[in-house]
Every structure is written in structure tokens, then in C-alpha cells.
Design brief:
globular, 10 helices, HAD_sf, 6 strands, hydrolase activity, Rossmann fold, DNA polymerase, domain 1, alpha/beta
Length: 219
Amino acid sequence: MAARAAVFDVDGTLTDTNHLHVVAWWEAFRQAGHTVPMPDIHRAVGLGSDDLIERLLGPDRDRDQDSAISSAHKALYGAYFDRLPAFERAGDLLRTLAGRGWRVVLATSASGPELAALRRAVDADEAIADTASSDDVDEGKPSPEPVQLALELAGAEAEQAVFVGDTVWDMEAATRAGVRTVALLSGGIPRVDLERAGADAVFRDVADLLARLDESPFA
């Protein structure tokens, strides 16, 4: 039987961390002399750092500030590493899918100590087969590259995979990779935006998805 891949975003999907990112980015921008509205930052969460800064400050910004802004965000967000919260039943969902024969792969813009902290929060390492992090790809979401790498790591074809995420960028990346998509509302993005970006199914959060797994693309 061909391998089946369950590909998961992490921030806003398995962990309740999107708004921590918003606050950390807001402060990083403030320190660099920029006032960026939090709702705009929220909608950009899920992009890699370079793309997020480009989207929020535009092409005419002083690019010499980019590295300092990104470093400030990492330092500010790092203050939460010892207490990052996973969503209820996140680990149970991954273990259930692994028990049903799905190869669980994380596809995330997080890497290094941040990714390690997120994995500790989810506490389901035994169910996670592999990880496609920002260190492993040239382009982050909405490029399909992270999802394509996750499929390669799982040894699965696109038609044998399901991607679970919470942002427009997640849905666009998975759709471009030809993968069925499950969107979660736990990241704070409106249902209509997720559906417009290609979501095949929408659930409230991981606990809702687990409770209705047999009604989902994982059935």
C-alpha cells in the first residue's frame, strides 16, 4: 500500500502561538521605528520572516533593518519557549493518525530551538515521522516547496496526502502542491478566507477534527 501522509503546520494549528508571534513582531517593528497594526501582522503570520517583513513594510523599506527586525522577533518570541501552549488534543490527533497508518510530517517555518520548543509543547514525538522546517527549503509558504518536501520525506504522492493548517498561506501552499487541505479556525483567520484559498474542509480546531475524523479528508 502506498504511504499516506498527514502534513501539519504547527503555529496556530497544533499550538496556540499565533498571537504570541503577533505581539513579538509588533514589538520588533516598534523597536525599529515602525508602527504596524496588529491585525495586519496577524494576517501575515505563517509567512517566513523575510516574506513577512516584505509584506508589512513594502519593497521601499530600508532593507538594512531586516536582519535586526527578524532577530528582535526571535529574541522576543524566545521568551515564551518554556511555556508555549499546545491546543487541547493536538498530541492525541497526531497519535491517532499515526496509529491509523498515516505518516505524520510537520511543515513549518519554525526551526532550531523554536521548533524544538513547539515539539515539546505538542508532546507527540513518537507519532511524528519527520519535519520539513524553514532550514530545509529555499522558499516558505505560500510556495508549495515545504509541502512537497514533506511528501518526499513521507514517501507519499500528493493524492495520498492531507495537509492541515490555519492560514491562507497554508491553504495556498498545499493546493499548489496538489494536496487535499483541512483548515482550522484556531489561528484566527476567517472561514471565508480559508475556503477562498483552497480549503477542502474546515474545522474549529484539532479537538474538533479529532472528534469528527471520519467526516474529514482523513476518513
